[in-house]
Description:
By secondary structure, the protein is mostly helical. It folds into three domains: 22-60, no CATH class; 80-176, Up-down Bundle (Receptor-associated Protein); 184-419, Type II secretion system (T2SS), domain F (Receptor-associated Protein). The chain has 17 helices and three strands. It has a three-stranded antiparallel β-sheet, covered by helices on one side.
Amino acid sequence: MAAATAKNVKPISAQRAEVSKLTTYDWIALDKRGKRMKGDMAAKNASLVKAELRRQGMNPQTVKERGKPLFGASGSSVQPRDVAIFSRQIATMMASGVPMVQSFEIIADGQKNVRFKNMLTDVKQTIEGGAALHEALGKYPVQFDELYRNLVHAGESAGVLDTVLDTVATYKERTEAIKAKIKKAMFYPVMVMAVAFLVCVIMLLFVVPVFAQTFKDAGTSLPAPTQVVVSMSEFMKSYWWALLIGIVGGVSALIFFKKRSTKFAHFLDRFLLKFPVIGNILRQSALARFARTLGVTFRAGVPLVEAMDAVSGATGSIVYGDAVKQMREDVAVGHQLQLSMRQTGLFPNMMVQMVGIGEESGALDHMLFKVAEFYEEEVNNAVDTLSSLLEPLIMVILGVLVGGMVIALYLPIFKLASTV
């Protein structure tokens, strides 16, 4: 009897494959009052959807398979911000006692991003098939990186998954907030400079040639600034394609060598860290992410040596990532964390001392969170300072580029007017 029962039990992998074949159906039905209701349901076929609706006391009118949109069928890409919001939602629901599968179903139903909705639905179905949460998330390593999955695994092993998910949610929110702050500060000057460059190109291609022809017909000698602008216009008209190829080729080469050459990527990262103002922001951001990531993993119960593996890829800096890998080797042979940090020469003395106090008092995670909060605040202040400095600087650059070009074009006119 037991052998017969065992034969009827499907392997977990087969159950997952079977669950993943479910199709989403849109349905319209009448309830007991005759009120028209509509919704969607995942099932193997339309007959099962109708049977489930009848079981719920509704009279199915229409059940049809959900069609795929003509454009963007897979939906937009899943952004880190989407993962951060999901982390907070799942943490809140599990802390409130909502079962995990039901939590995933509720969150997936509320998603507007089709791709992320399908992803969460697939994770839910994998969990229903018998997999652990960290295993189900492992199907999407790009969206849920190794650090995320390790933290979830630690929470599952210790039986404090809801607490760990809350910590992970806070970590993702803080990390994305810093990224958004830096991107917002850089977006304005980049856009203004791009518009200024476009205006200059339009003037050189279409406006300056008209003035140049007028000056040529008048037979007047051109002042030096005007001659420079006219020469730039002639070069742009004749060799615009070479300039375009140079810009595109330069950017492509930069991206190519950054991805393919470790030495070049390391050199570029070091150069940016030493760059005035921006380098300070990048350095403080890396310190904040290192401290918060290590604090989160350590509080979740991940051993320090294992935690360092995940932290090395979460700093956002190749230089600091390599330093963390070296620190991991030092800690693995018995050195204190504060000593290994000091050997790199990349961590401020204040940070090293606070980590040392945390190690001596047994409150390393608490100290790391304090350090993270300090440097996150420093990043916010530095970004605000950068924004206030860039605004007048951008105005000066715009005045020199556009205003200088206009003045250069009108100098011959002033000269002609003075001779009349």
